[in-house]
């Protein structure tokens, strides 16, 4: 069993264009999503060719891996960095490519039942409500047996930022991601960079050496694959 990319057609590109929101900000290329939507008739064919070349060769255009980070003040003193929330914005064309890869990979994972049943985040037809319902069912079942249920709630701090690229790629091979597909994800994770946009000016680019890409479509899916085996280390407990 192995994951293989499916060639992209103009129809796929047009469908992803329709999912873009006009209100979203432009990335480092300064091309607003609305421009792509309005020019879809002209752009969809060459963009499909570029994305297909990327999927076949495992190489992603370097500018598509540059994020523009906008610091948004939350509350408190404006001179305290901890009081800002970074908003990471990728080029709209990057999001189109990522949505295509995301849909293909998610479909492969779900059809082959490769994602842990305990994982409810970032999956179709899953929700926090369903997770809570299953948890309450477990508690009630234990009560009927005269048992107590102990729970530990864990919040991972800056979880997306701490993912090791090499460890993630090693785990991807366990899901059947090999050959050019693995090369593509390797290229996707490495040699990324970002710059800060503040008060109309852009900083110099600096490299991102760890974590799944913030503001990306693929980031959340890659993260749940990274932690997919956490259940294997629990002997007499269940994780939700």
C-alpha geometry: globular
- Rg over CA atoms, rounded to whole Å, is 20 Å
Query: How would you state the average pLDDT, rounded?
Result: 90
Fraction of helical residues: 40-55%
How much of the polypeptide forms β-strand, as a percent range? 5-15%
Total strand count, please?
5
Q: Could you give the order of the helices and strands?
A: HHHEEHHHHEEEH
Poorly predicted ranges = none
Alpha-beta classification: alpha+beta
- Compute the number of structural domains: 1
How would a crystallographer describe the biggest sheet? Answer: 5 strands, mixed
Distance between the termini: 27 Å
- The DSSP helix count reads 8
What keyword list fits this structure?
5 strands; 240 residues; single chain; 5-stranded mixed sheet; alpha+beta
Structure, described:
- The chain has one domain (10-114, 150-236).
- Helices cover 42% and strands 11% of the residues.
- Helix 1 (10-19) crosses helix 3, helix 6 (165-174) packs antiparallel against helix 7 (179-189) and helix 6 crosses helix 8 (219-226).
- It has helices at residues 10-19, 33-38, 40-57, 92-111, 128-144, 165-174, 179-189, 219-226, and strands at residues 66-73, 84-89, 192-198, 201-202, 206-208.
- By secondary structure, it is of the alpha+beta class.
- Strand 3 and strand 4 form a beta hairpin.
Compact description:
With 240 residues, the chain is of the alpha+beta class. The protein has helices at residues 10-19, 33-38, 40-57, 92-111, 128-144, 165-174, 179-189, 219-226, and strands at 66-73, 84-89, 192-198, 201-202, 206-208. Helix content is 42%, strand content 11%.
């Amino acid at each position: 069993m192995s994951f293989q990319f499916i060639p992209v057609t103009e129809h796929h590109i047009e469908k992803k264009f329709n999912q873009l929101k006009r209100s979203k900000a432009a990335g480092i290329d300064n091309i607003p999503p609305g421009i792509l939507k309005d020019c879809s008739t002209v752009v969809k064919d060459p963009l499909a060719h570029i994305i297909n070349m990327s999927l076949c060769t495992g190489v992603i255009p370097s500018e598509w891996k540059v994020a523009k980070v906008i610091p948004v003040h939350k509350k408190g003193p404006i001179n305290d960095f901890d009081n800002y929330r970074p908003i990471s914005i990728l080029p709209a064309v990057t999001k189109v490519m990522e949505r295509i890869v995301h849909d293909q990979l998610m479909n492969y994972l779900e059809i082959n039942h490769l994602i842990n049943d305990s994982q409810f985040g970032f999956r179709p037809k899953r929700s926090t409500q369903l997770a809570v319902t299953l948890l309450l069912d477990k508690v009630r079942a234990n009560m009927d047996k005269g048992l107590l249920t102990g729970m530990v709630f864990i919040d991972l701090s800056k979880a997306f930022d701490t993912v090791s690229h090499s460890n993630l790629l090693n785990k991807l091979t366990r899901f059947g991601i090999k050959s050019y597909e693995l090369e593509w994800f390797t290229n996707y994770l490495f040699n990324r960079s970002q710059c800060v946009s503040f008060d109309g000016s852009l900083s110099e680019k600096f490299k991102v050496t760890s974590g799944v890409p913030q503001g990306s479509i693929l980031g959340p899916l890659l993260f749940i694959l990274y932690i997919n085996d956490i259940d294997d280390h629990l002997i007499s407990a269940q994780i939700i």
